[in-house]
Protein 1
Amino acid sequence: MVFRKPIWRSQIAQWAPYVITGIALVALTPFISDYFKYLITKILIYAVFAMSHNLLYGYSGLFTLGHAAFFGVGGYTAGILIIRYDIHSFWLVLPASILMVLLVAAVFGVIALQAKGLFFLFITLALGQLCENVATKWRTMTGGSNGLVGIPYPDLGLPGLTMNPSYFYILVICVFIVSCFLLYRLTHSPFGEALKGIRDDEGRMAHLGYNTWLHKYLVFIIGGMFAGMAGVLFGHLNGIIIPAHLGISTSTMAMLMVIIGGSANVFGPAVGAAAVTILELVSSIYVPERWPLILGSAFVFVVLLLRGGITPHLVRLLSRFKVFIWKH
Amino acid sequence: MEALRIEGLSKNFGALDVLKDISLRVQKGEHVAVIGPNGAGKTTLLNVISGELPADAGKMHIFGQDITGMARYHRVHAGLARSFQVTRVFGSLTLLQNTLLAIQGMRPSRFQMYRSAFAYEKIIAKAEKLLQLLGLWEKKDELARTISYGEQRKIEIALSLSLEPKVLLLDEPSAGLDLGEVLDFIELIKDMAREKTLIFAAHDMDVVFGLADRVVVLYYGQFIADGTPEEIKANPKVREIYLGVRQK
Amino acid sequence: MKPILELDDIHTYYGESHVLQGVSLKIPEGSVVALMGRNGMGKTTTIHSIIGITPPRRGRILYRGQDITRLQSYQIPRVGIALIPQGRRIFPFLTVKENLTVAAAHSKKGDGWTLEKVYSLFPVLEHRSNLRGNLLSGGEQQMLAIGRGLMTNPEMLLMDEPSEGLAPLVVSNLISIIDQLHQTGLSILLVEQNLNMALAVADYVYILNKGRVVYDALPSDLEKNEEALTNYLGVAA
């Protein structure tokens, strides 16, 4: 039979990349500055956000511009629980925030999935802006346009462990690795294959017995939950969540990360997140006021010259490099 | 119990009456060809039966189950499958992935989010058997959009057959195939649809006479003839409106 | 007689795929030439090479002796060639009349095809003149596609699988239409799967196999050549 491999070898092949990447990143801890840790942490959080967006866009064909609503709801819920309700345990705050995002996504999904294509896009956009507006107006709860300020590091409740940049960095690495693993499994599962089918030809899938609405609804919620989780970590990272984190500018950034990184595989958006974040850093050093122009130019560059995003070209470059090394 | 029963089915597009109060009974295991001039309503009929379009009046039953008003995917679970005149395969997926999707369509495992789609050995085995039968197993890892049109057509039919339907609707199954491919195709469908109830729309008389044991003729939204292929071929009205005088 | 269209050893590629591997054929002025072959052998690619969608990498295409190999697609009709594409491809949201008159914008002046003349060739189109394209039957759409091509007043027609998806009666009608067009002096390159149709209308037949011309003969010769029929067209004896 074609598909039988020794069990232990396939298990190791499955787990190894994640473990190796995780260990490699963690191992950097004593060697890099706090700022560098901040940078990598930020990239990893954005990576989870962008990968969750790609679950909808690249894998299911759901072009949404309201994905930041879930990112922001995650961040705001965590911030509100900590600051307004004095609940500090990470093990309560995270699940509660994700649950909140689930509820919001469940409602938004019913509304948005009445439509397809362009109209779906408009509705998700509107829902995102709705969230941003609510956050701006509901000053007592959300801090209004100033946002929620003073969100501390997460409290893991482990005796003797005070959270600092290094431990937070490691925490985020763990979340990132687990997210990568789960998203990879999802996109290669029967459910994931169904999403790809729906992306290619939804009508044909219906004629194969698939309740396509249900599949889209489920992925809408799941994608939202991953974004919410990223949002929680984002709030902890910067200590602040503002209404813009719910709206179009953040949603667009996720989309740009997906397109620049590449939507064809699970990890492409993570590469995009790294590229955009580093580009933002460089821009802020030399020409901070030109950041939108630089981001826009990068986007146009990728669309015109690097079809499919950075990742496929990077992979090709690396494999040629491997061949070169091999020959010499 | 009839495999398919249609009663008083009507469908119009605004002022245009495409199907006019038609009725049809198909017994289990029958192979029925639906022929008729272009614009007579053949594709519309298949679209209404498969749920692509809602009927304006009338009822449809599959083995006694009322499918009028059922969603498309629900009809599949009731035992109905269809293929399309213009090939619709999942272009960005491999042939194996295409086949797996179809086989998985009826199974609860289609909601599984953790296990790999390739870990289901029984399903892979079924896919292998089907692709071997079509002569496409060697190309299992090629993307559906890169194979030839004739091969895509085979996959198109394979998708609907994977559902192991009780009633199979084929819309112009040989459309776009060349002369040689059509002959192979007829043999293939004969083989695979042997025990199934088959209803197909076709213009190619080779296909009609090769596959059908019964032919119904649709003319401007109504059935004007119903009989064996030989009877229909000799029917003067049918010759007048469809076959033309010159016959092979 | 000088050929109106000549393909001289053309090689066309789709990306790296070498689809046409040296195709040469001549269409004498005023004749109907059929181009046949199994699916994927290069028939439509040949048409696309002529009209500039996939220009050949090597070889020449000559229209009345003039090299048109590198012309852009929109320049081809001006030279005098009209395409009746595979699948009809009439404008679905325009009416029959609009479909016909849109194309007429580029017609040459003089004693040529007008709306009235097209209607007299296809009376059914006149009856349906205000109906939107996508509401026509397949046969009516084929008539419309031909009419639309004629409205550009071409000297030559490229017809790609006109009988596909049409009822037997309509195909018979189509045969007589092509005969009539032949009588008016039009040159026609006809790509067809339908053997009976090709044999009925063509003055000469070329068969493509794997991107090359493997057989060319008079229709009457092809009809008798069982080997060619089986090997190149897949027809059972």
Protein 2
Amino acid sequence: MRALAILLRRDLRLGFRRPGELATPLLFFVMATVLFPLGLSPRPDLLATVAPGVLWVAALLAGIVGQESLFKSDHEDGTLEQLLLGPAPLELVALTRVFSHWLMGGLPLVILSPLLGLMLDYPSAAFGTLLLSLLFGTLILSLLGAVGAALTVGLRQSGMLLPILVLPLAVPVLIFGAQSAAQAARGEDPTAALYLLGALLVLGVTLAPFAIAGALRISLES
Amino acid sequence: MNTSNWTWFHRLGSPPTLYRLADRLAPWFGWAAALGLAAGMYGGLWLAPTDYQQGDAFRIIYIHVPSAYLSMLCYALTAGASAVGLVWRMKLAHAVAVAAAPLGASFTFLALVTGSLWGKPMWGTYWVWDARLTSELILLFLYLGFLALNRAYEDPRSGERAAAVLALVGVVNLPIIHYSVVWWNTLHQGPTVFVGGGSDISPRMLAPLLVMLAAFTCYFVACLAKRVQAEILERERNAAWVKEMLEYS
């Protein structure tokens, strides 16, 4: 437990020393969202209809693209191999790493989403559901993306490969997340979709660490 | 536990044994597939009556349904072989998974193409976001991800194991994807022109379909056997038994 706390503190400190890298997924999220009104039409009624889907797709893409850096620098300087050899179970180490990465990448994205919602005419009464669904969703996406990142960590051309591997797996998250946000915007009850998102999160937290650890072991052997 | 019952399983892990088994199975399944396809085609295209609602367009079912069924069977096989390969470190299981995945991707593609060709006369459009079509499309993406990851590694041993992990993650996700897509679609709009139809299908229509299902499966097994043989030869190209076999044949 102590080792994991140290690891978390180290990851956060390393992350905040390079604020430029932290801002990149957020900027991507903002820009991807801004492209939709430009591409579709700035009519408020149209924007309000597509807003939940647009916000969710942009968050999905930003979350997955941001996962590429998850193990990269640790792999390059050999830290990852030390963690693999260390006494702490690799599954928990991986989970800690995913969590610290989410704190720096996923959480700011969630906090930023109401601002973009305002720009897209998303009703402010439904912000609570939007925040909650994105909170669950970005956590699941971080776990799924970490599996992809662990599988591609040793590869040179991993940039485009990671989204190809992970996006099909992220379909249920997108469906339930965008659905709950849309239902809340229409004034309907979004709890069913939120419960399903929560169930996916529980499943992800339970199973993903084993897949991440297994993938890391394979990647580091080669 | 009696360990001797597992010797057949261990024997399958030996490349020459699996190679000879595939060599023996391929012609049987190949001929069964050829006969079954001929019989099923005849039954489906000539003997089966014209559907009173869909006309002759329904006859594409004899290609569409077997392809869709094999696309899913093949993913289960890929994931199963991957699990065996990862758990028992059986290299030939990975060879089976790698050999099966392109076949599965082809069947998925065939199911999508025939599905959209069928959709044009029935639904009036080549593509609807029907739950089954959509999950078949995502299945194709999963296959392509498996193949892309497998090829991305320079060392084929690592590539097949990484792809195996992905196949296992995919197989856990597949039911969730399927049901989420069904749920998503029913909240929007359901396809109403063609719902099921399998319940009261006439026996003269059903029999060719069953024949085609069996024939497609035989074709798949024959192809898989040949592809596994090719995989084994590529892996064992420096082994003594391969040289011996090639010299005496």
